[in-house]
Predict the 3D structure of the following.
Amino acid sequence: MTLTLVVSAACAGGAPHRNVGATSGVGPSAGSRRSDVLSWEEIQNQHWLNAYDLVSALRANWFNPRGQDSFRERPEVAVMYNGVRAGGPDFLRTITVDDVEFMQYFDPISASARFGLGFGHGAIYVSTHPR
């Protein structure tokens, strides 16, 4: 049974796809705004300087750490940048909005299943345009 869970979590890994956006027609919320995704269409309609300002304005609740508190760990949401752990929310200040293809929030359980251990407060996944 444990092996089945590990294999299932591994198969669920990988980067989210571009068509996860609110208007992509994929998933149960097709045609409506998803609270866990900032789609390319939503991002392009905004005029923010960086990804941090964009999330602060449209999905500020993504910055609220979830999960158990720890005395050893600073309670902050992790940022995954094109599949690589890049730090905390302040890293989003270094990403210009024009470079972002989509952003997705993962709660602690989903983040740990997708990216591995160390995501006890959730994660924000940022995908940029291919160059």
Summary: Residues 19 and 78 are 23 Å apart (CA to CA). The chain has one domain: 2-128. The longest helix spans residues 2-11. The first strand starts at residue 37 and ends at 38.
